Amino acid sequence: MLNVGKIEEGFVLDHIDAGQSLTIYHLLQLDKLDCTVAIIKNARSNKKGKKDILKVECDINTLNLDVLALIDRNITVNVIKDGEIVAKKELTLPKEIKNVITCHNPRCITSIEQELPHIFVLSDEQKEIYRCKYCEEKYSKRRLFSKQ
Amino acid sequence: MRHLMSPLDFTKEELDALFDLAADIEKNPQLYAHKCEGKKLATCFYEPSTRTRLSFESAMLGLGGSVLGFSDAASSSASKGESVSDTIRVISCFADICAMRHPKEGAPMVAASKSSIPVINAGDGGHQHPTQTLTDLLTIRSLKGRLDDFTIGLCGDLKFGRTVHSLINALVRYDNIRFVLISPEELRVPDYITDMLKEKGIAYEECISLEDSIARLDLLYMTRVQRERFFNEEDYVRLKDFYILDKKKMELAKDDMIVLHPLPRVNEISVEVDDDPRAAYFKQVQYGVYVRMALILTLLELA
Question: Hey, are the CB atoms on B105 and A116 less than 8 Å from each other?
Answer without folding.
Answer: no
